[in-house]
Structure formats: structure tokens, C-alpha cells
TrEMBL record, chains A, B:
Native species: Candidatus Aphodousia faecigallinarum
This protein's name: Homoserine dehydrogenase
A Pfam entry, by short name: NAD_binding_3
Domain Homoserine dehydrogenase catalytic: 137-315
Family as reported in the entry's similarity comment: Belongs to the homoserine dehydrogenase family.
EC number(s) given by UniProt: 1.1.1.3
Active site: 205
Residues the record lists as binding L-homoserine: 190
Name of the top EC class for this enzyme: oxidoreductase
Gene Ontology molecular function terms on file: homoserine dehydrogenase activity; NADP binding
Length: 418, 418
């Protein structure tokens, strides 16, 4: 008989319940694949009574030390979220000799180095497949499947709430506000959706992917992130007319001397895989030297999909797999906003009678040597798709337009995915 | 300093050279991720002189025993292909205490059980990521990423040659024969393309995926496989008119009492990921209980993409990862052709003046309770898309049509992907 492994789980919300349910349902498969029976010995959560209704057999308490101090528990699962008390729970579990599985992207994106260093020091392992893109095994693909590759670029649709809202806005001409309300009604957006719609959650996840791919530090910086609150139904309409779909893309790219990092609404050509990622689904595209372009798609949130990732980590730990802790590298290059690169751009100028001044705008673009690929003029909107041009020249042209038209003009700009 | 691992590689064609090249180029990354320097100590191939021109530093010989009998070599890489002498090479390497990495789908699909049992007996590991879908880490996703899931269905586009030919036929109205010739000219099809275009290569790969997902035996049976030689430009045209794309799909599906298994040209709705897998690319869609639908896409062949998979296996072995050998299960259910299931179907009846007899055909379908979803009648072709119906009723209806129209009629039938 293989040894039984005892697990302590901190947190019993959607993900924790998913882990409990799937482990129970698929116990036999999991035991066969991991070589061990896995048992959730202790669950720590706030509402003990409610948890008991769901998991009547487990030992349910509200003290994290019940896991940390139990020598029989060899793996601590952290699915509480947030920084406090998740961080100290994980650090103390490591110090007490436990391996850790966490789904906590906010924590890793800000304190990943400290946690992985502590794990390395104590010869413990911290696994975190569930922290990015839910059940898609993207951490595994990046660290193991593509282990022999130099990574050039990672592009992700990493937040189900944003993708659900944007997908709705492409299906019918609703405003962002109405699409958000509908998403909240259906449970795809939280009562306070700030964290999702402002791009912070996406930024956390990209910070983790970028650390794995490029060794950049676990130092999430919200200034590099733009969410979807400014995407209007008008922009969606024009994007579609030009053959694009607007997605909140997270992009980390290796340049000569730095890693560029951006989270922002981006026009994606409609004949690509990324454009077909609809509703609350997630996806990641990786460009690397040996493999070329690869693409991974699946459910990025929800109890059971996320549980699938947590349990995959538990199986890996049970098998005794060794993956070195993904510390950011001493010589890691700085994260930079995407600016030195050449992109195609979408620009919509909105002002009364702007249509009569198309010639003036075209002249300005010409002055800055920016070639126009497509143009559309209607209803006080003047819309352009440019050819690739440097960010500097493009900003200068926008400045000139602003100065030429004064305060009456509204300028809406988005990048176009290469 | 971590211990250096010595590798012996049998075979130095496209894949072998890819492994050599990528290992050399990315040595530092690979050492960091695996914890060991990996060195190809010995290469065994037929044309030693030609190999020396490519890899001037390596020890190149034409005797497989140079690997098998070398106690310093701990990992044998088999990238020769074919059954003889690959099988005995792998078995002898295992018996001499070596772990094995192989890209050989034909061998595993027919002798996988024998090889994995031998590995288990000698406490060795046989890794084979490169055997299915080239560089896409699909074996890893299925065995590890989805380790906690019950798999319901696997659908794959697993042969680059077939997909290249079919993609060409959808881009312009060329015949299968002309598309094949063009593919041969461009290096996407071999001089003797039988193995690819008859679906055998796809069948081998599906046999491996099915064994991993469902525990079915490694006993490839060519009778369950249909290739693409009968796909005509006329069928491509009608498929497109109805909103579909024809792909050679490999499908393994868990039913109540058995596993259905099929490789055949299939109509895929054009708004799906699978329909967008073009040129020589591969993809796999997996349906499972916890994660739901996930999708994986990338290069399925070629030197460096396949090398990416071989090297990922080497990194896993170097890390000391343990995955139990995927023996087929004692109680494994039999593979069955897909027949008990309900599918939508495409039927094209071709005969002089068939268009005038649409009423008769509709009547036959009605007799067998088969509802028609779409219908098109032109140029001696009468084309139907049915609603879902049982395979039995559908075959009976086809028999009746055959009897009613006699030998003058040609009947072309394909399944439609759910």
C-alpha cells in the first residue's frame, strides 16, 4: 500500500469546494496517477457551519495553525486569496516542512521572490498552476513542456470577467456599463469588479508568466496596466468593421535589452485563435525559438476548472517531482512599457464636423511618416488603422492632432496585435 | 557542480539534427532548468560522414551497441523511427539500465505495452512527448496537467501532411492529387505518402492518446482508419457552402461500455478552433470532467519543434521526475468503431439527373426518421446535412438509397463534428 498523504486546505470558497468535490469524485484516478491516496485532513475557513454542510466528513476549523502545526500534514493548499493572512500562512507552512500549493496570483505577483526563496532555503516546493489561467496547464507548459525553448513572447487573455464583458459587447451594441451589469447579474463579475475590469488581475497573472519566461522580478506595477472601462460600443463597432475584435491582451515580449510588458485593450485580427476566445474563457499564445507558435485554451476560472490545476499540482508533489523554484534572476532585465516597438494602431477622432477635416489629419500623419492602411469617416467619427510605425512618431502625431483641434476633440487609441 | 548526464542518440535525420542543434543553442537554459549539463556523447546513424559534416564534435558511429553497452550513457534517445531495429534498441537500453526518450509513434502504437512493461520491470522510464503532435506538450497536459480529470473525449488534427493538403484544397479548388503533388514539391509530403494520407500515422498517434486517456491497449488496428484520398474538391466546395471545413479528425470517445475510436475526414463547423488549424499545424481538443473543454495547438512536425518535445523529456528525466509507465489497464475496455452514437451527417449523391429525384431521397430519409437540416441541389449533385440520427438508421437509409438508384449513383458520406 502506498503511503497516504495528508493535506491541509486554507480557504473553502468556490475553489476550495471545487478541490474537495473533484478529489472526492476522482479519488481513484488521482491515487493511480499520483501513487498515493490524498486526503484533505483539515479545512480552515471562517464559516465553519456552512462548510460542514458541504463537507460533512472533514475536520473544519478556523485556525490556520491547525494546518501549520500538524506534523502529519505534508502539503498546505492555500485558496484563500489576498495577501493577509495568506502570505504568513504559506511562509510558516514552508518553515514547518510542508510543500505548498497556491492559487494566489496577487500574492505571487508581489511577494513571489520572498516565498520561493523561503521554499528554496527549506528545500520545500511551492506549486501554483491555478494562479494563472485557471485549469489550463500553462505553468507546466511553460516550465516543463517548453523547457528547452527561448521564449520570445507571451500573449494572454487571462481574465474571464473582462473577456465575458468584451464578448457581450461584440455580440450586440451594448455599452460597457450595461455589459458589466449583465455580467454581474449572471455571476461573471463581482459586486465590486474593480480588480478585474481595471486589468489588475490580468497584470498579476502576466507578472507571474513573465517571471517564469524571462526571469523578471515579481514586482507588479499597476502603472503598466490599462483595463477595459474605456472601451465603448462605438470602438467595438469600428473594430468589427475593419475585421478586428477587441480583447484585453496581456503581452510580455523579449526585446534586445529589456522585456516589454503591457496589459491593454487591443485589436485582434478576427481570423486568429485569440479572436475566437469568447465568454469567460482564457487562452495563452507562446512564441518560442524551437517550437514556434503554440496556443493553449480553456476555462480560466470557476471551482472545478481551478481545482483541476490545484489537484494537478498535488499529483506532481505526490509523485515527488522536482522543479526548481522560479526565482527571478539576479541579472534579470527590467520590465519596460512597450514603446520602442513598431505597432499598427487604431485611432478614432471624435468631434463635431471632424469628418470635414480628414484632409488635415491625413496631412499630419504624412508629416510624421505614418502610413494609413484603412480609413472610415462617419457620424462625427474619423477612424484610422495605421501601418506599423514607431511609438515615438505616433505619439508626436497625436500631440500635433491634439494641438491642431484643441479641446473639442476626443481621441481613442488602441494597439493592433501583430 | 551538478553531475553531467550523457546521452546516446540513435538516428540523425531531421529530428536528431533538431535535437543536436537546439541542445547546443540553448545549453545554458536547459542546464538551468534540468539541473544538469546534458551532453550527446554518442550518435548512431548510417551515414557517418554526412553526420560528421553536421556535428563535427560528436562521437558518431553506426553500431547501436555503442550506446547500449556504454555504462556512462544514462539516457538513450531513439529518433530512428520504424520497428526494427528501434524496438530491440529500446528494450536493450532499458535492460542495460538506461532511461529512454523516443519519438516513435508507430512502435508505441503497436508494442507500447511490451516496452512500458519492460521499463517498469527494470525500474526505468520511457518518455515519448515527441511521438504525438510534435512540439505541443500534449502528453504532459494529458498525464500531468489533467491528472485529476476523467477524460471524456479527445479530438485531434495529428498529421501535418494531411492537414496541409486539406488546407490547400480549401484555399483554391484543386483536386486531392494536385494538392498532394504540390505538398510533395514543397516538402510537406514524402515521395511515398501512403502512411500519412491513408490515416495510419494519425491512427498511431490516436492509439497512444487513447491508451493514456482511457487505458486502451497499444494495438493499432488499421481497419478503424480512413484517410483523405477520397476527399474531392466537390465535397470541399459543398462543405464550405454549408459553413464547414473538412479535416482529418482523430476521435477517441468514452461511451458507457466502450471507447469509440475513429480516424476519418470530418466536417468541422467553421467557427471552431479546429477549423482554424491550417497548413501543417496540429491541434488537440480534450473534454474532461473538471476542466471542461481545453485546446492545444502548435507545430506537429519538423526538426526543431519535435526536438523541443524530445528535450523537454530529457529535462524531465534529468530532474528525476517520476511518472508511472502508462500500461494499458487489465480491465481496459475494447476499442470500438464509432457506431452507437448519434451524429450529424453530410451526404452527397452524385448521378445524372439526380436533382430531379430529390423528392424520392427525402421520402427515404423520412421513412427512417432522419430529419434533414440543409439541402442543396445542383450539377448532378444532391447534398444533404442531416440532424443527429443513429448510425443504424442512417446506414439503413443509405442502403435503401443504393438499392433505389442502382449502380449509377455515387454516394459520398462524412460525419459532422459535434
Amino acid at each position: 500500500m502506498p503511503e497516504k498523504l495528508y493535506i491541509g486546505m486554507a480557504g473553502f470558497g468556490t475553489v476550495g469546494r471545487g478541490v474537495y468535490t473533484v478529489l472526492k469524485r476522482n479519488a481513484e484516478i488521482i491515487e493511480r496517477r499520483s501513487g498515493h491516496a490524498l486526503e484533505i485532513k483539515t479545512i480552515v475557513c471562517r464559516d465553519i457551519k456552512k462548510a460542514h454542510d458541504f463537507a460533512n466528513e472533514a475536520n473544519i476549523v478556523n485556525d490556520l495553525n491547525a494546518i501549520i502545526d500538524d506534523p502529519e500534514i505534508s502539503i498546505a493548499v492555500e485558496v484563500m486569496g489576498g495577501i493577509k493572512p495568506a502570505k504568513s500562512f504559506i511562509l510558516n507552512a514552508i518553515r514547518n516542512g510542508k510543500d505548498v500549493v497556491t492559487a494566489n496570483k496577487a500574492l505571487l505577483a508581489t511577494h513571489g521572490d520572498e516565498i520561493f526563496r523561503e521554499a528554496q532555503k527549506h528545500n520545500r516546493r511551492v506549486y501554483f498552476e491555478a494562479s494563472v489561467a485557471g485549469g489550463i496547464p500553462i505553468i507546466k507548459a511553460l516550465r516543463e513542456g517548453l523547457a528547452a525553448n527561448q521564449i520570445f513572447e507571451i500573449t494572454g487573455i487571462l481574465n474571464g470577467t473582462c473577456n465575458y464583458i468584451l464578448s457581450s459587447m461584440h455580440q450586440s451594441p451594448v455599452s460597457f456599463e450595461d455589459a458589466l451589469k449583465e455580467a454581474q447579474k449572471l455571476g461573471y463579475a463581482e459586486a465590486d469588479p474593480t480588480f478585474d475590469i481595471e486589468g489588475l488581475d490580468t497584470g498579476h497573472k502576466l507578472t507571474i508568466l513573465s517571471a517564469l519566461a524571462f526571469g523578471t522580478p515579481y514586482q507588479f506595477d499597476s502603472s503598466r496596466v490599462c483595463g477595459i472601462t474605456s472601451v465603448s460600443s462605438t470602438d467595438v463597432k469600428y473594430a468589427q468593421k475593419f475585421g478586428f475584435v477587441i480583447k484585453l491582451l496581456a503581452i510580455a515580449r523579449k526585446n534586445k535589452d529589456n522585456i516589454s510588458f503591457s496589459v491593454s485593450p487591443t485589436l485582434v485580427p478576427e481570423n486568429t485563435f485569440l479572436a475566437h476566445v469568447n465568454a469567460a474563457m482564457n487562452a495563452v499564445e507562446i512564441k518560442s525559438d524551437a517550437l514556434g507558435t503554440s496556443f493553449y485554451y480553456g476555462a480560466g476560472a470557476g471551482g472545478e476548472p481551478t481545482a483541476s490545476a490545484v489537484l494537478a499540482d498535488l499529483v506532481d508533489l505526490a509523485r515527488g517531482n522536482q522543479v526548481s523554484m522560479p526565482l527571478s534572476e539576479a541579472n534579470s532585465v527590467a520590465l519596460m512599457p512597450i514603446d520602442a516597438v513598431n505597432d499598427k494602431n487604431y485611432i478614432r477622432l471624435h468631434a463635431p464636423l471632424i469628418n470635414e477635416k480628414a484632409g488635415l489629419v491625413e496631412q499630419i500623419f504624412k508629416q510624421f511618416d505614418i502610413r494609413i492602411d484603412k480609413e472610415m469617416s462617419e457620424e462625427n467619427n474619423l477612424v484610422f488603422i495605421t501601418h506599423e510605425c514607431s511609438e515615438n512618431r505616433f505619439s508626436s502625431a497625436l500631440d500635433r492632432i491634439r494641438r491642431s483641434f484643441g479641446e473639442t476633440i476626443a481621441i481613442h487609441v488602441m494597439k493592433i496585435k501583430k
